[in-house]
Structure formats: structure tokens, C-alpha cells
């Protein structure tokens, strides 16, 4: 049994008066791929963004309860948010390459973290691009603008961008929603290979993707965690009828 | 918390100080103008300033009424000249011309907004004033000359902002009206003008502000006689010219009186500004 | 009697085009007239020699230097202040009463006539602070005048940067200041530069505020505390005192060419900036 890396206990989130996470209690284990599924508005993305405190950017954001990463309460005063965000790298639904070269995109995070040595940056860039199977495709044009890449390549670039920071966790928020099936497949393949080095949390609107890729799956509905369990069981014999209804497509 | 994150608080504070300094400039200017101008307003009486007909600083007579009327007349005249021309231009360029024409002409008009006011005044002196003198009589240096030149000066402002107001209107307004069988002109007259009204009014108020505040061009062509003009062809002095003309050699109470002129001008502009703000906020809200 | 709307439109269109043509004609005529009378006066001597005989002879070199010095000072002081304020308003605060007050103050500043700035500059810098009629007084006064424009254009440029860029920066561990300097500002730079360039154009043409703060000395300025005449002040004095009409035209032509070139540069920059984000 792997150790617990992330622990939520009675964790709730509010935007002003609206509560969009209702007392979530959940454990995420090391080196697993946890899929989070649920209809729109169920709080999946909010939970993901609570993990790296990206919700803090929205005025009126407020939390209650406990959320621990590697044993530390991440909402305790004095927490280094910057360190937290480097530890939990996030990939967004729409690939957002920064308006600079491919090399500079990957080196962006490490440079801000203080890495100055050119050789070290080169190594980080190559290593991250290899891990996302992009290296061979772009190694001859690292100085080119990242905007020239295709959608699928851009998304893999975004993944490489966070890998350059050597995170412990990879958070993905519907990463293949805008991508064609081949690019989706490439991303999912990368995730399987990265699993051994990272703990991965994948929010997805596509239940079949969760079924393909994740070890365990959590089902969110209207801000509540309805059920979490081993993926095979969740998709064949879920305990909660609501889970069954969602997976079988009766709503969503 | 990293050291970098702690210094973030310092950065925010520094930027707050910068922002506040920028705005306190306004406060400082207001304070100074009022500090210099109000004592003399009280010494000689506010009513005497506002309603007095005689501006004879040598005899301590500081009646600003001719200049107030002068500013009003010249501004009104500028609007009479500038608004119809400006709106016509704006409508033609947005509703009756192709995109290419618009893309070429609009930047050119905005470029013209950068021409210094002294140049406008100069053109007035060498071309317009003699023309008025020859064809209509009088000294040429007149309310009419000032109104025309000022009207031309505010054209870029009115055209630019009105054009923006028209292009900001949703396409559906035009499409809906045409679909009901209206001609484009009817659409402009009955649908677009009312809809763009607050933007147009804001542009007019801004143009008015520019006209009221204009100094150099007016000095060159308005004649600068400190009396209430009897006709459009009579010379006139505005509040702004009053200050600029005599500041160079005024002292003592005379100088303070010029500051008092500044105070009154300031108040007028603030009123116009607030009106413009309220109108454009109505558009957004 | 009902007029056929199509006839009504034809009449209206005719009128509109006439008025538009008149407007465009007037505006272009002014430039054309000045250039036609002024360009022949301009030669290398005109641009490199100082005014002689109160401006009746010689060139306008000292006024060119004066203009450059004053404008440079104004931009130097107003740009950090203005851009800093814009950064604060867009990146460091939510839309609340504080930002509304600051923005209202900035817009009021924008509406104050230049003669009032001249008065203010005269009292504060020339007299109270004892700088006298000088480039320093003039530059300070001008910087206050262009401050609102720089704040407004910088704010617009900053707001135009897509929010997702900021999100990316934060999500890889960037602090707010790092995000501003490494992501937001570089993207907003063309827009900010446009505002600065436009302010340069405005400073060059400014007369009322300058006459009362920088004075009108014809000599080449030697220090920040020298009084100096700018091109627009020189032009005004030449024209009003009737000293030399041809030199007046020449000065005006130089002024117009400078302003048009600068504004043209600003609008080209702005267009390139818009293309990137639309």
C-alpha cells in the first residue's frame, strides 16, 4: 500500500457566498494516477486548483477544513505558495504556450526559480522534452516560437514546461479536451510512463479516458465527493447509484 | 514563505506609493490654484468677480463677466462648427464607407489631433482673419474667427470618439433595422444615433472641455478686448486668454486675480469632466 | 407629404459626403499650407544655427535643443510614475473604491487646460521652489501634463494581455512581480510605448504651459536651470510679434513634420500591437 501524499479532510471551498466544494475527504496515494470525473460544475477543477492554490487568484476565494500535501497543511499561514506550485505542476485544458521560443517556454519556470547555469537549463529542457516525447520533433528548432507547434505538440510542451521544475505531482485539468485522438493518445501514453516518477491527478470530462488511464477514480457531483475507488470496480460495480447513472450516461 | 514572497509585500507598497503620488499631483495642483486664487476672490467679492463688467487691474477692478461670456460664446461657437461637421464625418466614415476608406482616413484624422494649437491659431491669423475682415467687415479678430478655428480644433476629438461609439454598436441593430425595410439613412437616424447617444454626448463634452481650455490659438485670433462682444464680428477675450495675456507682467492683487480666473476656469472644467464621466458610465452601466 | 425614404437617403448621403469632404479638406489644407510655405525655409543652416536678431535671422537650433531637453525630462519623469501607477491599478488591486478614486483623479488631470498647468508650474517650480524659468521647471510641469495619458494607455495595454498568460506564470511558481516583469510587461510593451510616443508628440506642441515655466530665452541652454525656448514657443512669438513670417512658417513646418512623424510611429506601433492580439 503506497503512502498517502495528499489528504483532504472536511475540505470546503467558497467563492464569496457560493460553496462549490462541500466537505471533501479524500486521500491520494503516491505514484498513482487518480482520475476525477463528474459533470460540469461538480467542483472537479475547483478541487484541483485548491491543491496548488490557484484559486487564490480569484477575489473572494475562501476555504474551510484541512488540505495536506506531504503532511503539510497547505493553507496554513506562512506556506510558500511559490514552492507549492512548483511541487504541483498544472496543465490546463487549453494549451497556453507563452509568446516565446520553445526553449524559453521550458526554461521559464526554472529561471524564475533561480536556475542560471546555461548548461543546467539545457539539460532540463532536453530532459523534459524527452519525457513528453517531444524531443525528437523539436530538437532542431528550439529557438522557434512555440506558437508554431500544433495543438497536440503545444499541450505536450505545457506538460514539459512543468516537468522542468521537477515536481512531485502532475495536475491535469481536462488536458485533451481540445485535442485530436492521436494527440490524446500520446498524452495518455506519456502519463503512463511518468507514473513511476510522479503522482498524477487527472480531471476529465471524458469517462472513457479515466477508465483508460487512471488507477483509481473519484466521482464528484455538485461539490461533493460521491465515491472513490479502484477504477475497474468503479466502472463495473459502483456502490453509489448516482455514480452508476453518470457513468452509464443517464445524465451529464 | 520564501524571501521572494516577503519582498512582494514591499513591491506592492512601493507601487501603491507611486500610484498615490501620481494622483496627489492633481490634489497639489488644485490646492495651489485655489490657495492663490481664493483670497482675492473674497477680498473683492465673489459676485464682483463673476458679474463685474470692468476688467481694469490698474484700478483694482476685476470684473470677469466679459471673459466668462467670451469663453461661453467661443465654446458654443466651436460646438456649432465642430459638432455637425464632426458627426457628419463620423457617420459617413462608419456607416457609408468601406472598411478600407475607414482604415485609411481614421488614423489620418487622429494624426491631425496632434497638430499644436499655435499652428491652428496661426492659420487663423494669416487666412481666416483677413478673410472675415474683407468679406464681413469688422476687425476680423472676432468671436466668429475664434469659433471657426476652435471648431476645427475639436473636430478630431468629436470624430474619433463618435466613430468609436458607432462601431461599438452591435451589428444586430443595423441588420434588424434593414431587415424591417429601413434605408441605411433611416437606420442611422432612428436607430443608431439614439443608441450611440451617450458616446456622442461624451465626445461633445470632451470637445467642449478642449475648447474652453484652449489658450494660444484664441489669443492669436480673438482680438482680446475685455468687453462683452456686441456681435459675432466683435473682438472677445476668454478666461484662458485673460490669464495668458497678463501673467507675464502682473503682480500683487492683479496676479492673484489671474489665479482667481484660474479657479473659476478650474471649476468649470471639473463640472464638464464629471458630466462626461457620468455620461460614459451610463453607457457602460 | 411623405418623402420617399430612398430619396431622403440620397439627399442625406450627398450632404454627409459634402460635409465630410469639407472636414477632411480643411484638416489637410492646414498641413499642406504650412508645409508649402514653410518647407522652402528649411535647410541645414536653418536647423543647425541659433536664432539671431530676435529670430529675424539665423535658424532654430537652440529651440530644437530646448524642445528635446524639455520633452526628454518630461518623459523621463512621467513614464516610471505612469507605468507604475498603471501596473498597480491593473495587477495589484481589484476594482474597488481605491482604484476608482485613482482613475477619477487621473481623468480629471487629463482635462485640466494647459494654461492652468502653466500657472501651477509658475507658482510652484519657478517661484516657490526657486527653480526659476528653466528646463527643470518646464520639464516637471510637462511631466504632470502627460501623466494621465501614460497611465491610461499603459492600463489599456496591460489589460489587453490575456489572463491565461498570468495563470501559466503563477502555476509554475512565479510570484506576482515575476509574472508582471517577465510575462505581462513584455507583452504590453508595444501598447505602453505607443502611449509614451503620443505623449512625446503632445509635449512638442505644448506652448501655454511651457512659456510660463521654461521661459523664452533664445540662447542655447547650458544646464537644467537654463531658461530655454521650445519650437512652439518660438513659433508663437515670431508669429505674434510679427518678427519674421518666413521663419515662423519654417518653424511651424518643422513642428508639424516632427509631430506627424511621431504620431505616425505611435499608430504603426499600435497597429502591430493590435494585430498580435486580435
Tell me what you see in this structure:
The complex is a heterotrimer of chains A (252), B (285) and C (278). By secondary structure, chain A is of the alpha/beta class. Chain A has helices at 44-51, 81-87, 102-113, 118-131, 135-138, 151-163, 181-194, 207-213, 231-236, 241-247, and strands at 4-15, 18-29, 33-37, 61-69, 72-73, 88-91, 169-173, 199-203, 216-221, 224-230. Chain A is 37% helix and 27% strand. In chain A, the strands form two sheets. Chain A has a six-stranded mixed β-sheet, with helices on both faces. Chain A has a four-stranded antiparallel β-sheet with strand order 2-1-4-5, covered by helices on one side. Chain B is an all-alpha fold and 285 residues long. Chain B has one domain: MetI-like (MetI-like fold). Chain B has twelve helices and two strands, in the order H-H-E-E-H-H-H-H-H-H-H-H-H-H. Chain B has a two-stranded antiparallel sheet. The model of chain B has no long low-confidence stretch (mean pLDDT 85). Chain C has two domains: 5-41; 44-277, MetI-like fold. The chains are: A alpha/beta (252), B mainly alpha (285), C mainly alpha (278). At the B-C interface, helix 1, helix 3, helix 4, helix 5 and helix 6 of B face helix 1, helix 3, helix 4, helix 5 and helix 6 of C.
CATH topology of the largest domain in chain C: MetI-like fold
Count, helices of chain C? 11
- Distance between the first and last residues' Cα of chain A: 33 Å
Topology pattern of chain A, helix = H, strand = E: EEEHEEHEHHHHEHEHEEHH
* Count of individual beta strands of chain C: 2
Q: What's the CATH architecture of the largest domain in chain C?
A: Orthogonal Bundle
Summarize the structure.
The complex is a heterotrimer of chains A (252), B (285) and C (278). Chain A has ten helices and ten strands.
Layout of strands and helices, then pairs:
The complex is a heterotrimer of chains A (252), B (285) and C (278).
Chain A (H helix, E strand, L loop, with lengths): L3 E12 L2 E12 L3 E5 L6 H8 L9 E9 L2 E2 L7 H7 E4 L10 H12 L4 H14 L3 H4 L12 H13 L5 E5 L7 H14 L4 E5 L3 H7 L2 E6 L2 E7 H6 L4 H7 L5
Parallel strand pairs in A: 3-8, 3-9, 6-7, 7-8
Antiparallel strand pairs in A: 1-2, 1-4, 4-5, 9-10
Chain B lengths: L2 H42 L1 H6 L3 E2 L4 E2 L2 H31 L3 H14 L4 H20 L6 H26 L2 H9 L4 H12 L1 H17 L2 H6 L17 H9 L4 H33 L1
Antiparallel strand pairs in B: 1-2
Helix pairs in contact in B: 1-12, 3-6, 3-9, 4-6, 5-6, 6-9, 7-8, 9-12, 11-12
Chain C lengths: L4 H34 L5 H5 L2 E2 L4 E2 L2 H31 L5 H15 L2 H15 L6 H26 L2 H9 L4 H30 L2 H4 L19 H10 L4 H33 L1
Antiparallel strand pairs in C: 1-2
Helix pairs in contact in C: 1-11, 3-6, 3-8, 4-6, 5-6, 6-8, 7-8, 8-11, 10-11
Amino acid at each position: 500500500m503506497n503512502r498517502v501524499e495528499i489528504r483532504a479532510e472536511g475540505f470546503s471551498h467558497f467563492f464569496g457566498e457560493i460553496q462549490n466544494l462541500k466537505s471533501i475527504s479524500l486521500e491520494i496515494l503516491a505514484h498513482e494516477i487518480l482520475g476525477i470525473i463528474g459533470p460540469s460544475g461538480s467542483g472537479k477543477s475547483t478541487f484541483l486548483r485548491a491543491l496548488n492554490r490557484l484559486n487564490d487568484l480569484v477575489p473572494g476565494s475562501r476555504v474551510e477544513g484541512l488540505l495536506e500535501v506531504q503532511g503539510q497543511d497547505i493553507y496554513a499561514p506562512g506556506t510558500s505558495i511559490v514552492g507549492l506550485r512548483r511541487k504541483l505542476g498544472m496543465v490546463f485544458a487549453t494549451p497556453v504556450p507563452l509568446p516565446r521560443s520553445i526553449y524559453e517556454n521550458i526554461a521559464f519556470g526554472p529561471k524564475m526559480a533561480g536556475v542560471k547555469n546555461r548548461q543546467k537549463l539545457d539539460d532540463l529542457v532536453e530532459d523534459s522534452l524527452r519525457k513528453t516525447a517531444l524531443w525528437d520533433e523539436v530538437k532542431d528548432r528550439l529557438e522557434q516560437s512555440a506558437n508554431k507547434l500544433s495543438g497536440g505538440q503545444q499541450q505536450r510542451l505545457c506538460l514539459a514546461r512543468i516537468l522542468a521544475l521537477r515536481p512531485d505531482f502532475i495536475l491535469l485539468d481536462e488536458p485533451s479536451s481540445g485535442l485530436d485522438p492521436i494527440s490524446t493518445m500520446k498524452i495518455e501514453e506519456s502519463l503512463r510512463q511518468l507514473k513511476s516518477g510522479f503522482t498524477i491527478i487527472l480531471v476529465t470530462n471524458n469517462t472513457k479516458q479515466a477508465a483508460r488511464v487512471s488507477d483509481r477514480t473519484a466521482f464528484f457531483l455538485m461539490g461533493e465527493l460521491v465515491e472513490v475507488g479502484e477504477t475497474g470496480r468503479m466502472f463495473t460495480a459502483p456502490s453509489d447509484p448516482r455514480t452508476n447513472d453518470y457513468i452509464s450516461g443517464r445524465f451529464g | 514563505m520564501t524571501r521572494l514572497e516577503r519582498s512582494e509585500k514591499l513591491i506592492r507598497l512601493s507601487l501603491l506609493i507611486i500610484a498615490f503620488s501620481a494622483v496627489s499631483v492633481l490634489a497639489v495642483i488644485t490646492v495651489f490654484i485655489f490657495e492663490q486664487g481664493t483670497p482675492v476672490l473674497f477680498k473683492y467679492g465673489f459676485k464682483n468677480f463673476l458679474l463685474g463688467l470692468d476688467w481694469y487691474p490698474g484700478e483694482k477692478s476685476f470684473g470677469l463677466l466679459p471673459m466668462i461670456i467670451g469663453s461661453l460664446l467661443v465654446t458654443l461657437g466651436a460646438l456649432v462648427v465642430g459638432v455637425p461637421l464632426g458627426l457628419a464625418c463620423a457617420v459617413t466614415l462608419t456607416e457609408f464607407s468601406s472598411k478600407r476608406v475607414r482604415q485609411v482616413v481614421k488614423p489620418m484624422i487622429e494624426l491631425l489631433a496632434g497638430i499644436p494649437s499655435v499652428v491652428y491659431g496661426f492659420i487663423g491669423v494669416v487666412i481666416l482673419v483677413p478673410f472675415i475682415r474683407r468679406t464681413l467687415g469688422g476687425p476680423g479678430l472676432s468671436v466668429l474667427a475664434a469659433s471657426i478655428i476652435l471648431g476645427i480644433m475639436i473636430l478630431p476629438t468629436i470624430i474619433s470618439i463618435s466613430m468609436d461609439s458607432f462601431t461599438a454598436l452591435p451589428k444586430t441593430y443595423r441588420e434588424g433595422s434593414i431587415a424591417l425595410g429601413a434605408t441605411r439613412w433611416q437606420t442611422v437616424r432612428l436607430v443608431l444615433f439614439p443608441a450611440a447617444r451617450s458616446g456622442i454626448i461624451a465626445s461633445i463634452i470632451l470637445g467642449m472641455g478642449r475648447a474652453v481650455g484652449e489658450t494660444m490659438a484664441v489669443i492669436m485670433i480673438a482680438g482680446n478686448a475685455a468687453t462683452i462682444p456686441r456681435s459675432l464680428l466683435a473682438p472677445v477675450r476668454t478666461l484662458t486668454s485673460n490669464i495668458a495675456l497678463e501673467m507675464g507682467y502682473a503682480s500683487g492683487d492683479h496676479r492673484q486675480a489671474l489665479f482667481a480666473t484660474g479657479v473659476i476656469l478650474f471649476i468649470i472644467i471639473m463640472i464638464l469632466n464629471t458630466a462626461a464621466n457620468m455620461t460614459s458610465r451610463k453607457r457602460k452601466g | 407629404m411623405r418623402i420617399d425614404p430612398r430619396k431622403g437617403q440620397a439627399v442625406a448621403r450627398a450632404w454627409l459626403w459634402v460635409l465630410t469632404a469639407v472636414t477632411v479638406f480643411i484638416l489637410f489644407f492646414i498641413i499642406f499650407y504650412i508645409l508649402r510655405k514653410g518647407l522652402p525655409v528649411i535647410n541645414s543652416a536653418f536647423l543647425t544655427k541659433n536664432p539671431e536678431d530676435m529670430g529675424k535671422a539665423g535658424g532654430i537650433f537652440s529651440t530644437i535643443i530646448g524642445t528635446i531637453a524639455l520633452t526628454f525630462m518630461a518623459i523621463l519623469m512621467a513614464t516610471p510614475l505612469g507605468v507604475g501607477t498603471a501596473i498597480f491599478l491593473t495587477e495589484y488591486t481589484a476594482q474597488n473604491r481605491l482604484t476608482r478614486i485613482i482613475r477619477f483623479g487621473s481623468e480629471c488631470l487629463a482635462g485640466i487646460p494647459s494654461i492652468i498647468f502653466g500657472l501651477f508650474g509658475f507658482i510652484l517650480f519657478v517661484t516657490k521652489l526657486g527653480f526659476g524659468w528653466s528646463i527643470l521647471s518646464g520639464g516637471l510641469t510637462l511631466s504632470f501634463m502627460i501623466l494621465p495619458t501614460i497611465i491610461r494607455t499603459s492600463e489599456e495595454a496591460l489589460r489587453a494581455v490575456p489572463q491565461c498568460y498570468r495563470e501559466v506564470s503563477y502555476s509554475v511558481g512565479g510570484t506576482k512581480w515575476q509574472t508582471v516583469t517577465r510575462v505581462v510587461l513584455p507583452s504590453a510593451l508595444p501598447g505602453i510605448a505607443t502611449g509614451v510616443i503620443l505623449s512625446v508628440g503632445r509635449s512638442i506642441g505644448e506652448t501655454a504651459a511651457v512659456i510660463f515655466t521654461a521661459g523664452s530665452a533664445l540662447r542655447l541652454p547650458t544646464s537644467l536651470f537654463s531658461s530655454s525656448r521650445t519650437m512652439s514657443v518660438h513659433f508663437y512669438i515670431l508669429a505674434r510679434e510679427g518678427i519674421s513670417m518666413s521663419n515662423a512658417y519654417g518653424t511651424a513646418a518643422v513642428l508639424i513634420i516632427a509631430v506627424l512623424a511621431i504620431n505616425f510611429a505611435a499608430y504603426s506601433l499600435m497597429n502591430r500591437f493590435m494585430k498580435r492580439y486580435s
